[in-house]
Amino acid sequence: VGSGNVVVTATTSRISGADRYGTAAQISQSITPGSKLAVLVSGTSFADALSGQFLASALSTPTAKVGILTTDPNTLSSATQSSLISNQITNVYIVGGTAAVSDNVANAVAALHVGGVSTQPTIQVVRIAGADRYATNRAVILYALVSLGWGGSNTAVVATGDNFADALAVGPAVVNQGYPLILTSGKTLSSSAQQTLTDLALSKGLQKVVIVGGTAAVSSSVESQITGLGLTVAARLAGADRTATAATVASWETTAGTFSVTGYPGIAGLGFAKSTVYLARGDNFADALAGGPLAGYNGNVILLTASPTSLGSGASSFLAGNGGTITTIKALGGTAAIADSVLTAAIAALG
Asked: What is the pTM assigned to this prediction?
């Protein structure tokens, strides 16, 4: 791929398993240095699972980074069980109530001995849940504050909990920076979200909010309610569709200086490397969710595709704008999630 007088050869690869559970296991295996802790969420319902991104970050240390595993809600998926055993996991944190991850699954995990060795202790299980997705989101953040001693941040990310794409696009930033991801209804600021923002402002000096998604995702009314709490909305990261919003998030993440957004004060860029880009399907949540920690720990972005067979305008635009610096594109999921033709299109977009 040429850019001026610079020629860069981009390569593609993929991280995948036999299904979404196997893919999550393979992605988690790719996180180094790995932790003996794991976050476990539903692989079929995104509502509670989205909050697992911030929890993974809060549980991590520089020498032990935590991944996200997914499971069938009713039966512990075999790939997930194998991952728990092979990675010597000692503690599992389930995000969501029993409708998301059943007691049957929780009990199956708790019956496993560490490393699959009968003389070792069984895996310890903690469930973090609330009455709905927003209460679960608040419960996760409070758990980080109270039980994990999370130090806080002056910046939070707000995204809709009505859908998954925008919250997934910003997952790498949430994980990398330890920004709390606060989910809200798109039309009005959820009471749980309002309480969390207020608590963080009072206890941890929260000052700024980055909204992800356009007004169809997070309404102007929600934005007004946030500023009414005395917080500054530093930026709204949005595009014409989910792929374009993800590209805008990626542009913020890879900016070294101030990232300016018309009508907003702007926010410091995160300085992510542009050399490696992760690509996940944007019409399903599971692969991008598991990939958020991996990309975040490595300081890389996730671009969302329009579908398993279509790259989408946002991803194409970001790749075209950074053709001289991107050397590796890693697909998350098998060919049913990211077709080989999409990877071919991604390479072509670089040129």
From this structure: 0.96
